[in-house]
Design brief:
This protein has 425 residues and is α+β, with helices and mostly antiparallel strands. It has helices at residues 47-65, 71-81, 168-171, 188-195, 213-226, 232-246, 278-290, 300-310, 340-352, 363-372, 392-399, 401-414, and strands at 5-13, 23-29, 35-43, 93-102, 109-116, 122-125, 128-130, 135-139, 148-156, 161-166, 255-263, 267-272, 294-298, 314-316, 328-330, 335-337, 376-381, 419-424. Helix 7 (278-290) crosses helix 8.
Length: 425
C-alpha cells in the first residue's frame, strides 16, 4: 500500500429550523481513475429549494470534472447552465470544485481548484498558512446585477499540506449577533468538548460581517499548532462547531466545511477466520505482532489462535454489546469481537451508510468507528473450516464469511474511498 494518503472529509449543520441543507458536499471518484473530485455547492436561500439547486450544481460539476475537459471550461458550462434569480439578480448557486490528480503511489498529487462566490479557500503547510496565485475570468450574463468572477488555480500538495474550503455559514457566523456569544453552555457534551486541549483557544472578534475568513484562518492555525495530527474529519467538525457557537447555537445559515489533507496513512488490520494450517497460525501471529496500526480480531476461534501466538490471555470486555455478542480483550490487540453476526452487521451498516450517531453502542459500531478513522485496511481471512463445529448449518454460515468480507471491501472502497486489501491465509 502507498505511504501517503489523501484524507478528505467534511462536517455540516443545517440552518436553524431546517430539516434539509441548502449546502451540498459531493465527493466522487471514477472507477479506475486517479482523479478525485470534492465539490461544495451553496444553493440560494435554504431548505428544499436550495438543496435541489446545490445538488444539481454539484452533480453537474462532478461529471464535468471527471471528464478530460479543462476545469475552467467546466466552470463556464456550469455558469451558463445555472439560472439567475429574477428578483435578486444573482446566481442560484455558488460552488468550489477541487479536482485532485495523483499518481499510483501518491508521490505526485496536484490539485486544480475552481471557486465561484464561496468564501476564499485556505491552504496550510503544517500550521502555516500558504498564499498562492489564482487566475480569474469574468462572466457577463444577462440579468446579473454584478460582474461575476470565477477564480482558478493549480498547485501540488505534499505530506502535511491541507486545503480547506467552506460555505458562507462559516465565514458569516455570528453576523446577526455582532459579537461572540458566551462560551458557556449547560449541555454536558459541549462542556466536555470545550475542555479538550486542542480545542482551547482565545476568543476571536466577530464583526458585523461575521467571523470572517481571516479569523477562520487564525483559528485553524491555532488548532494545527496544538494538534498537528488532527484528522480532516475532526478539523472540519471543530470549524463547524466554532461557527455554530458564534451563531448562538442557532445557525443563521447552513454551515459546511471540507478539509483535504495529505499525510501518512492510518492503517487497520482485520483478522477473521482460522488459517488453513498451524504454520499459517504462526505467520498470522507474527503479522499481528508487527503490524504498524490498529488490529481488530473477529471470531472466537481466531481470537484463541491470536492470543496463543502472542502468548497472552483472553479476558472479558465490559463494553456495551447491544443485541450483538459481547467483545473480549487481548493484550496488543485494539478490538476483539465475535465473528459472523458482528461482521454481517458491519457489512450492512457500511452498505447503507448508517451514521455513527444512529448506531447502538455495540461491537459493530466500534469496528466501523475504527475503520472510518483509517485510510488503509488490510483484511486477513482464514480459510479453514472450524474442526470443532459439528453442526453443518453453522459450518455453512462460516462459509458465508467470504461474501460478507467482499461486501465490506466494496463498501469501504466505493462509498468511503478507503484503500482496502484482502488476503486469504
Amino acid at each position: 500500500m502507498n505511504d501517503l494518503c489523501i484524507d478528505i472529509d467534511y462536517s455540516q449543520l443545517y440552518k436553524h429550523g431546517q430539516k434539509i441543507g441548502g449546502d451540498v458536499f459531493y465527493l466522487d471518484r471514477d472507477d479506475g481513475s486517479n482523479v478525485i473530485t470534492a465539490i461544495l455547492s451553496d444553493g440560494l436561500g435554504s431548505g428544499v429549494r436550495a438543496n435541489v439547486l446545490a445538488s444539481l450544481t454539484s452533480h453537474m460539476a462532478s461529471k464535468l470534472s471527471l471528464s478530460p475537459m479543462d476545469l475552467e471550461r467546466s466552470a463556464e458550462i456550469i455558469m451558463d447552465t445555472l439560472p439567475i434569480d429574477s428578483v435578486k439578480g444573482i446566481s442560484y448557486s455558488t460552488f468550489t470544485i477541487a479536482r485532485i490528480i495523483f499518481s499510483d503511489n501518491k508521490s505526485f498529487i496536484r490539485v486544480e481548484l475552481v471557486e465561484y462566490d464561496n468564501p476564499d479557500s485556505l491552504r496550510f503547510a503544517g500550521s502555516e498558512s500558504v498564499e498562492w496565485e489564482k487566475s480569474s475570468f469574468r462572466l457577463r450574463r444577462k440579468a446579473a446585477i454584478k460582474e461575476e468572477i470565477v477564480y482558478s488555480s493549480s498547485f501540488e500538495m505534499k505530506a502535511g499540506d491541507r486545503l480547506i474550503f467552506f460555505s458562507d455559514g462559516v465565514a458569516q457566523a455570528g453576523v446577526s449577533l455582532g459579537s461572540v456569544p458566551g462560551a458557556s453552555r449547560d449541555d454536558a457534551a459541549y462542556a466536555a468538548f470545550e475542555r479538550m486541549p486542542h480545542r482551547q483557544h482565545k476568543e476571536q472578534p466577530v464583526t458585523a460581517k461575521g467571523w470572517g475568513t481571516e479569523n477562520v484562518s487564525d483559528y485553524i492555525r491555532g488548532v494545527l499548532i496544538r494538534d498537528p495530527e488532527i484528522s480532516s474529519r475532526q478539523l472540519a467538525r471543530d470549524i463547524v462547531t466554532q461557527a455554530y457557537k458564534f451563531d448562538g447555537y442557532k445557525p443563521n445559515d447552513d454551515i459546511t466545511c471540507c478539509v483535504i489533507n495529505v499525510r501518512k496513512p492510518r492503517r487497520t488490520l482485520i483478522v477473521t477466520g482460522a488459517p488453513r494450517n498451524r504454520e499459517s497460525d504462526r505467520r498470522l501471529g507474527e503479522h499481528v505482532k508487527n503490524f504498524d496500526g490498529q488490529v481488530i480480531v473477529c471470531g472466537g476461534t481466531t481470537a484463541k489462535i491470536v492470543a496463543r501466538e502472542l502468548g497472552v490471555d483472553i479476558t472479558a470486555d465490559k463494553s456495551p454489546a447491544g443485541t450483538l455478542p459481547p467483545s473480549s480483550c487481548i493484550e496488543g490487540v485494539d478490538l476483539v469481537t465475535e465473528g459472523m453476526l458482528t461482521l454481517t452487521a458491519v457489512a450492512q451498516r457500511l452498505k447503507d451508510k448508517v451514521l455513527l450517531k444512529d448506531m447502538s453502542e455495540d461491537a459493530a459500531k466500534r469496528i466501523i468507528r475504527l475503520l472510518r478513522e483509517t485510510d488503509q485496511i488490510e483484511i486477513i481471512v482464514g480459510t479453514k473450516i472450524n474442526d470443532e463445529l459439528e453442526d453443518p448449518a453453522t459450518a455453512a454460515r462460516i462459509g458465508l464469511r467470504f461474501p460478507i468480507i467482499d461486501e465490506i471491501e466494496r463498501s469501504l472502497t466505493d462509498k468511503y474511498f478507503k484503500e482496502c486489501e484482502v488476503l486469504y491465509l
